Amino acid sequence: MDPRVPRSDGFQPFPIPTRTPRLVLRGHVAGSGRVGGWWWPWTQNLTSQIHDLISALTPQTGPIESVAFDWNKISTRQRRTEDPDGVRFIAPLPGQAAGMMCLIGTDHRGTFLTVIPSNMQP
């Protein structure tokens, strides 16, 4: 990645978000294994928005290295994240509820977000 591109923080290797994620976080539960909040993506292509989401969460959670979710076909076909970004997309964890995303930090703790379908009205 071009070193002249401003980073959102010193932890994640991608640029400052270009679109504000629609995200609601609960109190300080990051890494607790409980629902940490709700994410309402702008489109069905979650992977095109994942860097912005991670950039918004990193100040609360620390660096994120993996995202466990039941990725849809649109997201896997149109993945616009680069392999060198250090974020792995993995299948849901055992017992992980449908529609729940787990963002796993470098400390191996997870923060769970309920993913609200993009076509739902506020």
UniProtKB/TrEMBL annotation:
Pfam families for this protein: DUF5994
Protein's UniProt name: DUF5994 family protein
Record organism: Prescottella soli
